Amino acid sequence: MGGSPAGAARPATLVLRALGLGDLLAIVPALRALRRAWPAHELVLAAPARLRSAALATGLVDRLLPADAPGRAVPAALSWTGPPPEVAVDLHGNGPPSHLLLRALRPGRLLAYRHPDLADLPGPHWDAHEHERSRWCRLLAWYGIDADPDDLRIAPPAVPSPALGAVLLHPGADAGARRWPARRFAEVARALHRAGAEVLVTAGHGEGRLAHHVARRAGLRPEAVIGGDDDVPFGDLAALVAHARCLVAGDTGPAHLASALGTPSVVLFGPVSPALWGPPRHGPHRALWRPGPGEDPYRPGDPHALEPDDRLLRITVEEVLAAVAELPERRPGPRPLRRAGT
Question: Rounded CA gap, 143 and 122, in Å?
Answer without folding.
Answer: 10
